[in-house]
Amino acid sequence: MEILTWTYILVGASFALYIGIAIYTKAGSTKEFYTAGGGVSPLANGMATAADWMSAASFISMAGIIAFSGYDGSVYLMGWTGGYVLLALLLAPYLRKFGKFTVPDFVGDRYYSNKARVVAVICALFISFTYVAGQMRGVGIVFSRYLEVSIEWGVIIGMCIVFFYAVLGGMKGITYTQVAQYCVLIFAYMVPAIFISMQLTGNPIPQLGLGDTVSDGTYLLDKLDGVLSEMGFHEYTSGRKGTMDIFAITLALMVGTAGLPHVIVRFFTVPRVKDARLSAGYALVFIAILYTTAPAIAAFGIYNAIDTVAGQPVDQLPVWVQNWQKTNLISVNDINADGIVQYTPYADTNELHIDKDIMVLANPEIAQLPNWVIGLVAAGGMAAALSTAAGLLLVISTAVSRDLFRTFKPNMTEKRELSIARISAAGAVVLAGYFGINPPGFVAEVVAFAFGLAAASFFPVIIMGIFSKRMNKEGSIAGMVSGLLFTMAYIIYFKFISPESNTVDNWWLGISPEGIGSIGMLVNFITCYAVSMLTPEPPIEVQEMVEDIRVPRGAGKAHAH
After folding, report:
1. Is residue 557 part of a domain?
2. Distance between alpha carbon 517 and the CA centroid of its chain, in Å?
3. Best label site of 69, 194, 240, 301, fewest CB within 10 Å?
4. Cα angle vertex 355, ends 349, 357, to 5°?
5. Helix (H, G, I), strand (E, B) or coil at 252
6. Which domain, by its residues, includes 187?
7. 282-317 pLDDT, tens digit each
8. Where are the membrane-spanning stretches (predicted)?
9. How far is the C-alpha of 437 from the C-alpha of 150, rounded, in Å?
10. Which SS3 state, helix, strand or coil, does residue 354 take?
11. Do the domain assignments include residue 522?
């Protein structure tokens, strides 16, 4: 069968499964809409958390970054995985014990202030919209190639699917949908990796294939270093980023992960504090399967791409290039008119331009794998993007309905709150679609900005809210505002106001916009501490509540304050 036929079958079957689950698990109460009724098993929650957390950036874009950046791309692996460990150990059990649905809910109660709650809502909306823009962009890329529609129409189709099951099922529908999506995305990621590892190195385990030899007896990474050096590129295994920038990006991604509202809320869907810890452990195992495979997929992809295109006649390019040229995500321009494709690191001589976001999706075609594998990867890419988009949309709708409306209308009925949550999710889908069509960068770059904003706004006030009884409402508000404004200003300046000056020579302390969230976090911490020391202590009942949160009676039921 043709690629298009396989894609329709596999993507269609997966969509039917997701929608069927959403209908079957429709939320009937606000508790089911926000936290799936608090009755999800740790194993299912671990799988759902992995799907929620492994977005289009992980599935589609991360291997693409590593493929084109080599060693420098490892910051995404270290930051995102390390951040998850930080979240599981430092935050999840304590927040679960506190017993609130959302991060703004925690901030509002812990800092005994509706102002702090509203600031936290604004931070959550900024982070979630920045993040969801990357997901919708991923959806558009998958649809544009495999269903042969424009990226704009791809985003619109994705919006309709997410709208249906996020608005209908809430967290209950999303949780069980994400369990199915994890199974689809991990199978779709591993099958081509195993195939290509066998092709290139004869080793069926991609993680080991990365360090194995190719047909001529040369180690794969040595061969890749040699090929890239001959073309004028830096060696694949050598880094160009400064130590400070690598540290800053890794730290921003780590603490940003720990402050992501759509991942934190997942730990409220299990019955007990002990289950929150257990589901975090399961999720880490499920995440590790994909993350340890990504470097191998990146190396296989760039090796095969260069091998099949660079130095080839322009009129005899392989079928995969012709297919992707239709999406405008690959372009070939014979600048010197010699009829041969020149691939160089210099803009005036480089004749091949490949969008970083297509490497994982194009990998099976480059390696000439069977058409059903290509269709499977399309279904996996959709699962990764949609699972995270749904989780983010739920955070947005919850922030508006529960944290904003209920703050000003505390006597609102549950039915009214559920209606507002669904209307908010619908509005969020439309806005997310707009950002998906007009993204401020490629998928992983956009997501890195979201992590930087989360690092600079949420992480310090959550961590100090748990571990410091002296931390008060004035400090939390000043910290969140200063951290968020500093980080946003830096990103907006270098990405939108003066993109031509976005070079290492102009960065403050040599830190790129992707890593500035780590400095924003320090600004937040310092401001929090200084302001809280100069203002009155929190009430005694708040200090006692903080003391209670810090005693994680793992086996007991979570207390709701």
Report:
1. no
2. 16
3. 240
4. 155
5. helix
6. 3-303+367-460
7. 988 999 999 999 999 999 999 998 888 888 898 888
8. 6-24, 53-71, 77-95, 116-134, 146-167, 179-200, 246-268, 280-303, 372-400, 420-437, 443-465, 477-496
9. 10
10. strand
11. no
